[in-house]
Amino acid sequence: MEIVSFIILGIWLVSLYLFWLFREKLSKNIENQSRFFLAYTLISAIVLIITQGENLFIPNDYKSNLITEIIGIVITVFLIDRIYNYINTKNEQLYRSISLRVCRMPIYTYCANWFFIYEPNNNAQLNVELNKYENLADFFKSDDFYNKIVSYNFNGLIAVDKTYAQYYNEKMQNVADKFQNILAKYASKLSHKDIHLLEHFGGRAYFFSIFAVMKFISEAKFTVIKQNVTTTVMPFNNNFIGVDRENFNKHFDKLIELINAYNEVVENDFEKWTIQNISKLNTTETANKNPSIEW
């Protein structure tokens, strides 16, 4: 019986090693991995002592004390873990709320850039067009929005020495920098999901690469020689034409996800970004009438 007990002890030790070796199969979270391993170790140890204690030369009096001590450890560890988990959850919620609130203006700027690509010349007409949609998701995933984006000529000149490709690349990079600054400040306190979402608009999204490529194309010099006359040509420039509609929509699904996350943490409707108020930044006149604004 003693040999069998020592074999069982060996199997238990091997099981601990295998449990730790394959802990990632149970959870990707390091804290959960540790919880599962500790729970398995303590509970299986109690079972082993109860069933094989005598054969492992553990006196009955000592066995009872040992089991009591292990149970005490289990209870203590469980309570400490619950307290830690509660505090950690509250802190995560707090930092998530703070970081998302700081996203207010980067979200507005990012959306405004797309609004002005959609309707570059007439703010009044932009408001009319946006009012046709119930929410931002319907607008950004509409055929009208998609068709206007893919037909936009980014080689058009916004100034004598600057194309729209150069201008919007600068604007989008500016937005990405703002999201990166938020990440740099709060990343250590945020969940993996929130970090991934902020990283997407911090330059990870492939859309930022498209703007960079179009900027490069707009800076290249194309010339045409006709009848001994050399003319500089700026051909149509829009790489969004090559983006699958499904992938186009995926990007704006991410944007809506971020906007919804932001809206969840703000306290009043005035601060929320909806299609009714994101189309224009609140003016001083409207802000004066709103008592909820912090001055």
Write the layout of secondary structure elements.
Elements (H helix, E strand, L loop, with lengths): L1 H20 L8 H23 L7 H43 L1 H15 L4 H8 L5 H5 L2 H8 L6 E3 L2 E2 H23 L5 H13 L1 H14 L2 E5 L2 E5 L11 H21 L18 H5 L7
Helix pairs in contact: 1-2, 2-3, 3-8, 3-11, 4-8, 8-9, 8-10, 9-11
Entry summary:
The chain has 295 residues and is mostly helical.
Explain what this protein looks like in three dimensions.
By secondary structure, the protein is mostly helical. Helices cover 67% and strands 5% of the residues. It has helices at 2-21, 30-52, 60-102, 104-118, 123-130, 136-140, 143-150, 164-186, 192-204, 206-219, 245-265, 284-288; strands at 157-159, 162-163, 222-226, 229-233. Strands 1-2 form a two-stranded antiparallel sheet. It has a two-stranded antiparallel ribbon with strand order 3-4. Helix 2 packs antiparallel against helix 3 and helix 3 (60-102) crosses helix 11 (245-265). The longest helix has 43 residues, at 60-102. It is elongated. The model has no long low-confidence stretch (mean pLDDT 86).
